[in-house]
Amino acid sequence: MKKVLFFGTCLISCIHAFAGGLLTNTNQSAAFLRNPSRDAVIATEAVYSNPAGTAFLDNGFHLTLNIQNAKQRRQVVSTFGPFAYGLDNNGKTGKRFKGDADAPIIPSFQAVYKTGYWSFSSSFAISGGGGKCTFENGLGSFEAIASLLPLLGQSIGITGYNMDSYMRGRQCYYGFQLGAARQLNKNLSVFLGARGIYASTNYYGYIRNIEIEDAQGTSLATQRFQSLHDQAVAAAAIYRDNGNIPMANMYEAQAAQMRTMAYATQDVTLNCDQTGFGVTPIIGIDWKINDQWNLAAKYEFKTRIRLKNEAANSASAAGLSALNQFKDGKKIAEDIPAMLTLGVQYTPVKNVRLMAGHHYFYDKQASKYNHTEKKLSRGTCEFNAGAEVDVNKRLTLSAGWQNTNYGLTDEYMQDISFVTNSNSVGIGLNYRFSDRLSIDLSYFQTFYNTYDTHTDDFNGVSSMITSLVGAETATQLVSSGVLKGSNHYWRTNRVIGIGVTLDF
Asked: Cα(31)–Cα(54) distance, rounded to whole angstroms?
């Protein structure tokens, strides 16, 4: 049985962006955290959000250093009838699975050298991922696999199951950007640059110690089933030699069943490192209409990335189609989508700035393994707004909001890797110690929507049943409603940041 049908894919994209698209972090500075509407600001940290605007900075060298700390929790409440067979589930069909993602230090910097009509800029940031996510007890798609064993083994007296499962994923996309902006006149500037992306991921997980219990309370595992298989094979041979064909056929059928159960209860371990590289061309424009109004736009082209696997998987993982994407030496498509940003900044009075912006991520045009991008209804849309107030010549207070809306579908949503629509708020301050030194302190909280899915084929388990006992049985179980299930998705996220800006 393909007990790891979802095991491999549950690890891919384990760490999603803390802010931004499906695999894009837009929170690349502490200033973003205190006000995420940065698409038309003119500042050093705008090397990422509005690079064309750096052409309007004062002549000289400008540097911003940032550190962020992010924590996420993902929760899935899975409901599936066969969970009641679990020896630790106390007859309950619903179970909560929790995953914690922690990124203790997310560094970044932005640097600009402005001279005359030109500005030359560079930046480094974690442009995607950035942390480690751990599910100590696996996921519902893990447990569904083991829960099928009592359901399908009732004829041989199987009444319950138990298992150990675990998964951990680390995903970091390091981005280093270089570019130049030029003022075409006193009001208009343009930018051309590129970002090199180095992707580094590791996925480790296992399903092991699968045991099933019979009516007498006897625990059965791989070795026991293998022994029963060997005994049935020997008995079948004896009966066939004696001409008792019906008995020989019966024991051969038992042998086949025991062989399948032995295979289904094997330990499987996945340990795979992936690395890849891509380049993101970037263009931008900034129109500084006057001292009150500034408009800006940026377009980042799609980044083609192919991840190469270096795997040390268990021997039992070989030949499992679900783990094909983690085979040693294989290359996997993991493109970063193109992105368009639009921004406006309005200064109604000298010490107040109002901002608004829009992001669109072209997710459906970015190739993924097995083209999962086609399951989305559209790309990701983001809207943001914010305000900054200069309390005095040293202190600035700011706050902002961002709405993120993905093109999610029930087909796309899986407990293995999920996002939900959200609203985020950021607050913080900037304090200027002198004309050359300032500090940003910020807090960013995301409030996620819940998402519910209901299906007649929980996590696609019918395909596993097909591999075990055939398509006819799988179809019958789906029709009977036995495989109905649901998932309730929810996430939490908070980020704190500190940034230091130096101007020379």
From this structure: 15
